[in-house]
Amino acid sequence: MVELLGVLRRHLGMDAAWLGRIEGDVLVIQVLNGDGGSFHLTQGSTVRRQTGLYAEVLSGRLPALIPDTFADPRTADSPVARELDIRSYAAVPVVDGDGALYGLLGCIAHRPHYELRERDGRFLRMLAEILRDSVTDLHRMWQARSQVWLDVSRLIDQGGPALAFQPVFDLERGRIIGVEALSRFPDSSRSTTQWFAAAGAVGLTVELELAAVRRALGALPQIPAQIGLAVNASATTLSAGLVEMISGTDAERLLVEITEHERIADAPEVTRALARLRRLGVRLAADDVGAGYAGLEQLVRLRPEIIKMDCSLTQGIDADPARRAVATGLVHVAEEIGGGVVAEGIETAGELLTTRETGIRYGQGFLLGSPTGVLSDACAAAGG
Questions:
Q1: Do 371 and 291 share a domain, yes or no?
Q2: Number of CB atoms found within 10 A of residue 205's CB
Q3: CB of 302 within 8 A of CB of 284?
Q4: Is position 235 within any domain?
Q5: Boundaries of each EAL domain copy (predicted)?
Q6: What pTM was computed for the model?
Q7: 106, 132, 158 - which closes a domain
Q8: Based on the domain organization, do 29 and 98 belong to the same domain?
């Protein structure tokens, strides 16, 4: 779709091309190609019927092409054309596969285009006809994305996802040393991973993660002093307000588990945020190591205090020499960089025994303690 708009924009020599959907009294820009920013247009921008030119195009009072809006008496007094410096435009209605009005396909430019001819209008209409079947699918996608945006936004405004706390054990001493705050969402039709993936698809990952961390930090005073709190954050969130949120808390009791750590090497702002967290006393963990992880080089770059071995390596470790070898290797890596390993997903006595035999000191999983929304239950064995 974007490529097709690029063809249109270049054919007409315009600055920006767009496809918009009519929703009530507004035109919503759904796809954009070119320099939309100079017209204050981005994907998702809305243009009201009262202020835009599109209503006049739809009614037939304006033609599909106007080479110079400032000179044409039909548009010379248009506030929007003057304010946004729209000197020329081309626009035609788009209908969906059922023949119902969908919206408008258009181009705009900052300079007059006196070379525009009627055949250019026919080219525009031809592209609108090509889009006829595509816009139905686009509308479905738009509706789905809009619903996701509303669901995630509503959750953020309500203070973020609910939390469950899962204990982390010192396997040698048999006692709880920390709890991990895990997000729990109201709609069980999406898993936690799917909720965060959906938030990412509509650009709300950072806001959702920060809301979850903020709620977890609010529980920190209720956690016994000898127990730490682990929170999860993507590399992007580290440099988007997390440091400021943690400042002023009991930061030395916090462990930040970093997801998507493969992105750190190419993001200097993330590296700076990591340094600031460490200066606050926060410890860092590389999360999900072993689950599609980019390589040991990333562990060397991050040098985390904790390596969290993914449950895909833990589960079945008692029956798989390869898993045991990888676990032993991670222990050696952790020792070399001054850290420790937490085995995630311990579910059987055999997995627990083998995990300890590989030299892994810390663990969590259903065998040791299930996630619970009652913080006191998660911390109950702290003194054992």
A1: yes
A2: 21
A3: yes
A4: yes
A5: 145-384
A6: 0.69
A7: 132
A8: yes
Dist. CA 68–CA 285, nearest whole Å:
60
Identify how many contiguous H helices and E strands the chain contains and give both numbers: 15, 14
User: Residue 140: CA atoms inside 13 Å, Cβ hemisphere, count?
Assistant: 6
Q: Single out the residue in 132, 152, 177 at which a domain terminates.
A: 132
What six digits make up the tokens of 102? 């969908």
SS3 114: coil
Please check the confidence at residue 332 and state whether its pLDDT lies above 80. yes
In DSSP terms, which residues pair with 89 in a beta bridge? 66, 108
Asked if residues 324 and 354 have their Cβ atoms less than 8 Å apart, the reply is yes
**362 DSSP β-pair partners:** 170, 342
Q: Summarize pLDDT for 180-191 with one digit per residue, the tens.
A: 999 999 887 888
* Kind of pairing between the strands at 362-363 and 340-343: parallel
What's the angle, vertex CA 43, arms to CA 42 and CA 47, rounded to 5?
Answer: 70
Q: Is residue 161 domain-shared with residue 120, that is, in the same domain?
A: no
Using N-to-C axis directions, what is the helix angle for 205-219 and 134-157, rounded to 10°?
A: 20
Q: Which residues neighbour 382 within 8 Å (Cβ) at sequence distance 6 or greater? A: 175, 176, 224, 226, 227
Domain that holds residue 121: 2-132
pLDDT at 28: 87
